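User: I'll paste a sequence; please echo it back and then give the predicted structure.

Assistant: Echoing your sequence first, then the prediction.
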Amino acid sequence: MIMKVVIIDDEESSIQVLSILLQKYFPYLEIVGTAYNIQDGEDLVHECEPDILFLDIQMPDGSGFDLLKNLGSNNCSVIFITAYDQYAIKAFKISAVDYLLKPISLTDLQSAIDKCLVMRDFYKKNPISYEDLLKNATAKQHEKVLVLNKYSDEKIIYQRIISIEADSNYVIIHTNQNQKIILSKTLKEIEEVVCDETYYFLRIHKSYIINTQHIKSIQKKDTASVTLQNGQIIEIPQRRKSEILEILNHILIP
């Protein structure tokens, strides 16, 4: 079955490159319209009702976030296009949408489209609300939410997470309400989403990411470790001891 595609990007060359890739490698996708700004793009989405929307982040008359906010809930899949590896959109990788970095690679494009195909039937029965993703783009770190299940509204606010523990190809999220939430994700995937230069979350061990706001105490002598507010004691590897302690001193001591 043919799926309808709309591309919204202020760079004509970007639209041309993406169009060529779609036409050459994805014959089941039909480009039904393109636009170069937010206003025309919004009108186009309402008119064409695409299955997949390729949407640039930065445009002269606003951002892709503005367009999504105006659309509200929608049945189409969104694939963001950006020239910047922005932290704000990394979280989309484990949610219901995806993003591509310019210049677009065929491998990344294939992966994003495959994700849309897998989710297609779900979208038709469950219009997507982008509220949480839009909030994450501008929210302070503790106010952000981690989407737990892209097939439902399950989510958890960052400030409730005490630690995230690796367990093979799963992770266990330990919360401040003594919950243990299991996700079918690797710790590396979660790290790419929640860890950034603010060090609100910090990977201090190959098997653990901690929320630095939930640290109860730090053992610096001999075998260094961190004790969290839920009683977890996590050892800091000797080879990273100086690096981790320096980061913790910087963020915990004003």
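Helices lie at 12-25, 38-48, 64-71, 87-90, 106-125, 131-138, 187-194, 241-252. The chain has two domains: 3-134, 139-252.
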